[in-house]
């Protein structure tokens, strides 16, 4: 009985407490209303970053290391959680545009990273400009960011430009006695823009361009193009292509007995290219990201420490020898955003046009930011911000990247 009496007394006290609390229901209502009003603010607190990557198709060897790097990017920046939304553009310009529209109109992202390749990145510019959403491209062409007009106002990039790399090729070729040079590149924006830069810097070094050929990423053979090149007897051949399709010209040149110098675009900086090209690429050269040869760089190179740190993180995730330049470009895009987002947060909340504008402005104001490829100093007319320290000359020797000091 005492037990039941105790329970009854407890019940009466609880009821009394409930009755006494009844007058504060208005207060509870006001609290609930305040919480509901706060919900949109809470939702907006999450920063959303969209990525358009070439995960399938001919450029997959560029997009997959970028996707794998996303797992290493910070999940919180400036006290706000960060969500990364990855879409596959299938190495196709139309799909890249559709992905970009989806990220802006449906996912309401605050920034976009991508695409992996030049044609797709160029196709995305109109969309991000219309959506007033900052974009950081992972592709090479300087045309992606130059000139910084009303549309490219919203566009940045992390890889070295084709102009930077073409100048390195011409200087190296000249130092090795090259007088005539031929070009074979992809039949797209990458091939065309890289040829323009190679021809320009070749002329500056008094090297004659004697042939210029094109091929498609999906072509099974380039024998016809190579035969035309060989008929001009060039001292060197430059291959303007990216990913594993870039292995076809050097393999065909070697099969046809070519003994001259062969240069690659920096779009081949991964182990998939080495695997596909095999022994036919031994003794060939490319201007490349410092990440490829980070352990071989002098101690005072500005990218060495951060490149080694990124390599350690990536290889812990994907295994020894798995790192590539294309993952590092994504890591550097993350570093740019990690630096800019806290600045933008002081001005506006994520998910708003004001935040996107503030983020764009903060990216453009980046100064002295060291990353895995060099030191970034952007401006209103330079949306890359890297200098010549961001490139190194590399030889492919026995299936390995070998640093070539100046």
TL;DR?
The protein is of the alpha/beta class and 406 residues long. The protein is built from 13 helices and 15 strands.
Which terms would index this structure?
four-stranded parallel beta sheet; alpha/beta; Periplasmic binding domain protein; 406 residues; six-stranded mixed beta sheet; signal; BCAA_transport; Peripla_BP_I; 13 helices; Leu-bd
Helix percent band = 40-55%
Shape: globular
Order of helices and strands: HHEHEEHEHEEHEHEHEHEHEHHHEEEE
Low-confidence stretches: 1-29, 31-44
The largest beta-sheet arranges its strands as 2-3-1-4-5-6
Bin the strand percentage: 15-25%
Distance between the termini: 96 Å
Could you report the average pLDDT, rounded to the nearest whole number? 90
Number of strands: 15
Write down the oligomeric state. Answer: single chain
Biased composition (Basic and acidic residues): 1-11
Family: Belongs to the leucine-binding protein family.
Domain Leucine-binding protein: 46-392
Protein name: Periplasmic binding domain protein
